[in-house]
Write a structure and sequence with these properties.
This protein is an alpha+beta fold. Helices cover 48% and strands 17% of the residues. It is built from three helices and two strands. Strands 1-2 form a two-stranded antiparallel ribbon. Strand 1 and strand 2 form a beta hairpin. The longest helix has 13 residues.
């Protein structure tokens, strides 16, 4: 949440950032958690195209 408050974030970046702090999190855990946070109004998201790939920014 700290980083999301400061700047836009995306799942792959979060995975790397969490690993940097000693946490190993898988997409099957991360993405449902992000979706719940969005459903609860804690995050918003939008879709952008980056290098030809759709990326959901939060």
């Amino acid at each position: 949440m700290h980083h999301a408050a400061e700047e836009e974030i995306h799942g792959p970046w979060m995975t790397v950032e969490l690993a940097r702090h000693g946490y190993r999190i898988f997409a099957g855990t991360l993405y449902p958690t992000l979706q719940r946070m969005q459903d609860e109004g804690l995050l918003t998201s939008r879709h952008d195209v980056v290098n030809g790939k759709t990326r959901r920014q939060r």
